[in-house]
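Dear colleagues,

As part of the handover before I leave the project, I'm documenting each prediction I ran so the next person doesn't have to rerun anything. This entry is a single chain, and its sequence is reproduced below.
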Amino acid sequence: MPAPSNKPAPPLPASIREALLLRPILRDLPAADTEFLLKNAWYAHIPEGTRFIIEDTPAEAVFFVLSGEVAIENGDRTLALQEAPRTIGLLSVIDGLDRSASVRAFSEVDVVMVPREAFDQLMEQSATFDTRLVAQLTDQIRSAHRHDASVRKNFDDHFHTPNARLVQGPYAMGAFPMYALVV
């Protein structure tokens, strides 16, 4: 779904506008910033199965997924399923690198797309938006750290238990097929 260019965005439906402005990154922006955002925001209802971000392509927009569920994909692998509300494509728009993954509508989704140029201009003109953007990014980093800690805890519980001792064999097992991993 390429970013529209050189055309003003049509007005957002009222329910979509309300849902968009409830996103923490956009909540309570100064009136001029809100007006600028809404003037440059494009709404789309995307059917299930539609890939609307393609990996290894330039980042043309940030997507606010307001309803439905999306699949984050890399090559032929699904990396994650994420339910709305979500902000998708933020990092590539900020750092200017190509998309690191594709995004496909796993169900029907409602999205609002803000083209990169408008997003960049909003960052330049609004200190409030910048503060919210930093808060959003730190929240994403903390979430990644919590997920990483959870995975590591499970790994540690099974393989690096403190004070674990290897019991000398031989090992005798019952009459059933079994795989044993000795670390």
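The radius of gyration is 22 Å. The chain has a mean pLDDT of 82.

All the best with the project,
I.
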